[in-house]
Amino acid sequence: MERLTPLATAFLDAEDEDPSSSLAIGALTVFQGPVPAFAEFVEAIEGRLPLLPRYRQKLCTVPFDLGAPLWVDDPRFDVHWHIRNTALPSPGGREELNRLMARVMSGRMDRGRPLWEYWFVEGLSDGRWAFISKLHHSMVDGVSGSDIFRLVLDPTPEPRPAVEDHWRPRPLPSGPTMLARSLWDLAATPATAARVLAASLRSPGQLVRRAARTAQGLAAISLAASPASASSLVGPIGRARRYTSTTVSLDDVRTVRHALGGTVNDVALTLVSGGFRELLLSRGEIPTEHTLRSLVPVSTRPPGTESIPDNRVSLMLPYLPADIPDPVDRLDAVRRRIAALRADHEPEAGESVTTIAEYGPFPPVAMGIRLAFHVPQRQVVTVTTNVPGPRITLYGLGREVEELLPFVPIADRVRIGVAMFSYRDKLTFGITGDYTTVPDIEVLAAGIRSAMDRLLTAARRPA
What we know:
The chain is of the alpha+beta class. It contains 13 helices and 15 strands. The protein has a six-stranded mixed sheet, with helices on both faces. Strands 8-15-14-11-9-10 form a six-stranded mixed sheet, sandwiched between helices.
C-alpha cells in the first residue's frame, strides 16, 4: 500500500475546503477520422490498463486521520464506469468542443472510485473525433500526466497489441490494520528523520549549501506574502467553468528566443502577460507592476521518473509584466524576473519544504495545510503552467492525433488559469476561466496571439 505525499494530500484538502473547485487536470485529444466504434475505444484502453496500475486503485482514508490516505486496489473496478460516451451538437466545431470540455472538467470526481475519467467524443466536424482525459491532481502532476499519453497512444499508425493482464485486486486493508500501521509510522517518525539527518551529515558541506539555498529561497517566497494589486482577475468564483485555447508555432517561439533572448518558457510567459494586459485594458483597468502575480509550477523530477504517478513540483511566484506595453521590454522583464527567482533558489526552497513535510508526523502536517486554506488568499492572481509534450506524431486506433489541448484547474479566488503544452511543432495555451466572472475569455486568447505577432515582428526587424 502506497501513501499519498503531503503535496498530493493538499490537493484533496484544497478541494474539500473550497466548494467551488474541482482539482482535476486534463487534456483534450483531437483525432482524424474515421470515428471508431465506442466499444473499440474501450477495448483499446482496457488493453493498456496493466501499464497504468493507478487506474485500478482508489483512495482509502485512515481512521482518525492519523496517516495520509492510501492507494488501494478497487475490488469493484469497472472500466465501463470510467469511460463515457458523448457527442457534440451540430455543427461540432471548436465552440461546442470548448463548452463540453468546460462542463466535463467542472464536475467533481467520485472519491470512492479510481480518480480518472475518459470521455469518448463523437460529432466533431470533418469526420473527426476526440477524447477528454480527466485525472485528479492528487494522482498525477503535469509531467506524469503527460507521460500517460505515451502509454495510451501509439507512436505509429499500427496499434500496439493489448498487454497481458493478470490483475486481481488485493484485499482492502481493515480499519484496525490501517490504524496500527499509522501508529507505527508515527512512532517511527523521529527515527526516520534521524536517519535522514545522519545521511545528510555524511556530506556536511553539501548540507550547509542546501540549507543556505533553502533559507535564501524561503526569504524570496516570503516576499510573496504581500497581496497583489486589486483587479477583476481575483475574487469569488462559482462551480462552472469556461474553456478556450489558442495555438502558436514553436518555430516562431524559437525565432523570438534566438533574436531577443530568453528561453521558450520565458517567451510563453511573455505571451501570457500580453494576453492578460489586453484583457485588463478591455475591462477598463490599467495594469500595474503588482497586478499579475502568477503561480508557476516547476518540476522537481529527476530524469527517468516521468512515468511515476505522483506530484513532484515546486513553484515560483513572479509578477508577470502586464503593465509593460512594449513586447520586447516585456520579454526582457520576464527573463530577468525568472532568472532572479532561480538565483534566489525559490524553486529549491519549495522542494525542501515538501520534502521535510514528508518526514514529519502526518496529523500536524495535515492540520497546517488545512489551516492555510482557511485564510483567504490575495497573493496569487493566476496560475501559468508549461509542460513539454511529445515532439513526434501520436496515433490512437490508427488515427493521427491532430491536437493536444491542456486544461488546468482554478480554485480559491483565482478566476483564470493558463496551461501550456507542446505537441509536434505547436505550443497550445489552454485557458480556464470562471463561468460567471470571465465571459470575455476569448479576449485573453486573442491577446496571446496578438502578443506573438508583435514579438515575431520585432524579432525579424533588422538590427
